[in-house]
Amino acid sequence: MAYEHQTKQAILQRMLDASPEDIDKRQGSVTHDLLSPAAIELALTYVELDQVLQAGFADTSYGEYLDKRCGELGIYRKQAVKAVGSVAFSGPSGTSIPKGTELATAGPESVSFVTKEAGMIPGESAGTVVLAAEAVAGGASGNVRAGAISLIRGNLAGILTVTNEAAFDGGTDRESDAAYLQRYLDRVRKPSTSGNAHHYEQWAKEVPGIAAVKVFPQWNGPLTVKVVVLDDARTAPPVSKVEEVAAYIESVRPIGAQVTVEAATETPIHVSAGLTLVQGASMSQAQAQIEEGLQAYLKTLAFLDPIVRYAKIANVILEAPAVLDYSDLTVNGGATNIAIDEEHVAVLGTVNLHA
Question: Where is the Baseplate J-like central domain (predicted)?
Fold first, then answer.
């Protein structure tokens, strides 16, 4: 820290040293007692000055101060995006469903949704109508699986069931400080000009939900560019997100370029091993810990390291708190490293663990 030595005692001593020599400056004296409160306040000021210093540099800044620093280069934080999809209402014919009807998933971490359009159930006696809906709040929590939405909030008489026949997608969290800083550093360290490869990477990452990008210039001849993208989870984004990236790049790219945008192809990594557990641990605990560790490891490789290392998988298993030892470890059926193609990304497949 720049001002870590500016303590109350150091400041007080400087003020005492600057006072006339012929006055009493001992602890408990009038001079000492009058200068002590000022020294405390000045020490607190130095603490705040240190925070100001850190907030002024991008790599140590945070929150709204990082927003201001990045904003100087026209780089703005990507905000949360709401997940979208459709829901099916079943009930008596003629039942009206107004726009803005509130729905939710069941369970303690319920996620709320609203219909984006009004509708009426068709048929002679009973039927089903499908309406567009979106999450109430932005974020990846709205990307719920098919069948997750089952509750209606509020009074909607006559409806028997509601569900989402397909998963909701497109929801993304507000950009984290770490991801936002990385985009700033990429802009500074990878000059983007005249539609070079860095420029396409920058454009793709400006779309909410896109975290990693690979650019292949002249991949299919002159003036052709392929852009391969990953989402915030370092997996293949949905088709709607790929189309959003393609549309945005089309709006800003140089004239004449032929751009292809694709999601990375996922290569599943299947892990199998026998486990010796620590006393009191369960296989379900070990399973959850190992899957979490493997997902974190694979995320670090995405578009950065093309090798899934057998030894790293073994380390993840051994580092799980519930695991004492392992045996018969196989990764995709073997005991060797797995090479990942340049347009692919390694994702967690099946994890088969046994005692």
Answer: 192-263
Contact criterion met (CB below 8 Å) for 225 and 217: yes
Please name the residue that has the structure tokens 């695991």. Answer: 323
Cβ-proximal residues to 255 (8 Å cutoff; 6+ apart), any chain: none
Which DSSP symbol is given to 326?
A: E
**DSSP states along 48-106:** HHHHHHHHTSGGG--HHHHHHHHHTTT--PPPPB--EEEEEEEEETT-EE-TT-EEEE-
pLDDT in tens, 284-339: 999 999 999 999 999 999 999 999 999 999 999 999 999 999 999 999 999 999 99
DSSP codes joined into one string, 261-289: EEEPEEEEEEEEEEEEEPTT--HHHHHHH
Q: Which long-range contacts (CB under 8 A, 24 or more apart) does 100-104 make?
A: 101/152, 101/154, 101/156, 102/136, 102/152, 102/153, 102/154, 103/133, 103/149, 103/151, 103/152, 103/153, 103/162, 104/149, 104/151, 104/152, 104/153
- Whole-model pTM: value is 0.74
- Let me know: does 168 contact 135? Beta carbons within 8 Å: yes
CA–CA separation, 82 vs 134, rounded Å? 6
**320-353 burial code (b ≥16 CB/10 A, e <16):** bebbeebeebebbeeeeebebeeebbbbbeebeb
Which helix (DSSP H) or strand (DSSP E) does residue 121 occupy?
A: none
Residue whose tokens read 């193609």: 341
Q: Kindly state the helix (H) or strand (E) to which residue 161 belongs, with its residue range.
A: strand 161-163
